[in-house]
Design brief:
Elements: E1 4-5, E2 17-18, E3 29-34, E4 37-42, E5 50-53, H1 55-66
Length: about 70
């Protein structure tokens, strides 16, 4: 599976959603469901493309993030 999409490879109909925790400082994370997985990109620099994760990868990551497993990184 491809793990990075250039901005030109992201379908125009991709509906990116910005995290409600982004705040005014511009720390914006956006995600969009694509047929091949979930794309994640920086909302203020959308021209840099997006990381692409499979549904299985996201299913493994999200519960860990909710449980605080990665809190030591911030």
């Amino acid at each position: 599976m491809q793990t990075f999409l250039e901005a030109t490879e992201i379908p125009a109909e991709a509906a990116f959603v910005r995290s409600s925790r982004s705040g005014a400082a511009g720390h914006c994370v956006e995600v969009a469901e694509l047929g091949s997985g979930v794309a994640l990109r920086h909302g203020k620099d959308t021209g840099r493309g997006a990381l692409l994760f499979s549904a299985e990868e996201m299913s493994a990551f999200v519960p860990g993030a909710k449980d605080g497993e990665f809190d030591h990184l911030v």
